[in-house]
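User: You have something folded?
Assistant:
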Amino acid sequence: MATKVQPMTGRPDEKNPSASLSNEEILRYSRHLIMPEVGMDGQLKLKNAKVLLIGTGGLGAPLGLYLAAAGVGRLGLVDFDVVDFTNLQRQVTFGSSDVGKSKTEAARARLSNLNPDIEIESYETKLTSENALELFKDFDIIVDGTDNFPTRYLVNDACILLGKPNVYGSIFRFEGQATVFGMPDGPCYRCLYPEPPPPGLVPSCAEGGVLGVLPGIVGSIQAMETIKLILDRGDNLVGRLLLFDALAMKFRELKLRKNPDCPVCGNHRTITKLVDYYEFCGVRGEEAPGPNVQVPEITPRELKSRLDHGDDLFILDVREPHEYQICNLKGHLIPLGELPRRVHELDSSREIIAHCRSGKRSAEAVDFLRKAGFRKILNLKGGILAWSDEVDPSVPKY
């Protein structure tokens, strides 16, 4: 007697709901289901996938939105920051009403509204060597949306130790890059960057800027690579570093090879546990307002009092000309990079107050000038941002 074949209704299996799709899910993902490369099997892979996003900001925004919309069944969000007004230019998960809120909770609310069928877990914590392995262990894929070197090395090493793919992306001004690290036969982040750059050599997005749409492009590429890994479809970016130049509107590709001598993924591994990555990168941490140098400082209120008193002070602005146009303290502009060849413009007999946006670059300038023999020089603590907060709110912040 022939067995009667029951048609697939898509109704959930009550014992294992993740083994099938509900009728509502079939309708939601219908544009996926009619693609033979995805279909029912692929959509169920997405439903059963567990992806952890490190960062919910510029790269994390398109990542979260597209992975949630695609139906990734479990999304983890790791971030310890709050939404700032300056984030809204590129972090499209958030709206003006989210300013001041926890990024993870604001992102969770937005993604839950986008797709209430998925599970979203928020971890309002800073990723550290103490918690990374515990956070990573229950997820299939880790996506790196961070913006600093210590965390990138931490994510890389934790992924290698646990055998997790690391979908990597980075952005700066008009340029971005993406690849996939941590696959069994592929390279890792340390294969590409064995050593971190010297502290202060590579400016952050907060210092150098980033075109708002750029993280949307690079983050979407990361989302695409994540989905391809889940579906096991297509050629992924393992062993290939994709470089994007938005101004030229060009993509190019560099071949990456696994380094057999890599200390974390090579043949003779010397890194078998997570380390202090801020010490490894020679920085004091993301919370540090300036470089790893100690220089004499003056607070904005102290400077205002001295200016009101009529003290003879030379205000040295070490920002870039386009920053000076945004706002200034009517100082003498010498960008930090030009200071060594323009030091003759300064009078060492006058008291100099150096400033920049946040106090970091001007601290480097003060350190340089003191080594050059200047003694009557102070750094404006907190830079022009602190001046706006503490002295003159009419000075715009950027």
